[in-house]
Amino acid sequence: MEEISQNVDMDFIKTRAYIARHSYIENMENKLAAFEKRMLNKNFNVFWADNEASLVELVYQLLPDKIYNKVCFDLPHIPEEFNNTKKIKKIPIVEVENGKQSASVLFTQADFGVLETGTLVLLNKRSKNCFNLIPNIFILLDISKLIDKISDLEMLLYLKSYSQNQEFLPEDVKIINRPIKRVVKTKIQQEGEFNMQDVPVTIFLYDNGVTEILKDNILRTSLYCIDCGKCRTVCPIYQYEKSKEFSPIELVKANCFARNRITGDLFSRTLLCGNCVPVCPIQIPITDLLIREMELSKKQIPSTLAKIFVRRKKLNKMSKPFQRYFFLRKLYGKNKMLLSYFKQQPSTFFNIKWLQEHPDDE
Question: 10-206 — its CATH code?
Fold first, then answer.
């Protein structure tokens, strides 16, 4: 991969990353078919899962033992079904690493797939030392997380890593471009003798609502996300909400579905502060997408939206501490955590640049 200089213009990298994500997302259907064919030609097992229920069903069908399986999970979210079944015993990663327990399956998730080379990319996995210790590998791949060219990979790794911890590249990058082999030693073999055994790698191409989001030409921009998590670090709602249910981009994705928009929760989960927009490494216009979803909501939007923007405008005009104190108590007095957040802000509460670019919406 081509080395990226630490002194390169960050805006240039972000623009290149946006173009790379746009290139894949806008022609996803054809490129996914090509990726599947390439992986099958490399002797990977490939299956499609529409949602969590179909994923769970597929996993049950493909487990090596039909009654009892020891599975080592390294997933950001483990389907609840796997916590409530006797078919699976969850084995901690550390127990496999230190040899205290064995597992029949490692189930993890890829961060990216590369269409050009038929490659899976896994970053900073807790199970990084387990791949040659377990006889079956299951890898989940979100179908929106592919890129066209290997030359785009380092750029995206750079942005994701830098957004997460100010490092220029991830600590650990595992590249899988062919089926894995592991060392197996039997009791009858002498010192220094060993056999190499093929490890079947099964890839689950996971839709989980992606194709439905693609139907909206504006909201599909949310699929450009590379899961860096930067937006959640600047979101006052996320930081002060106990549930930590939605980061800004997760809120956008959740409300791409009409069934979620009609509940009206969107209006209570965002301040439209715009903090997430300048920190997004892929330049996703998150605030604009949230407004788009408000407009699509079946609630009576004009009055609700008008109140939100009036609030934004008034907050930005509050310069005297005395005025701010009473204004904040009136608006956010019932939410002590948000009230505390706004009182601590030394400058304007909302993104002035965004307001200047949208004067008609004030």
Answer: 3.40.50.10420
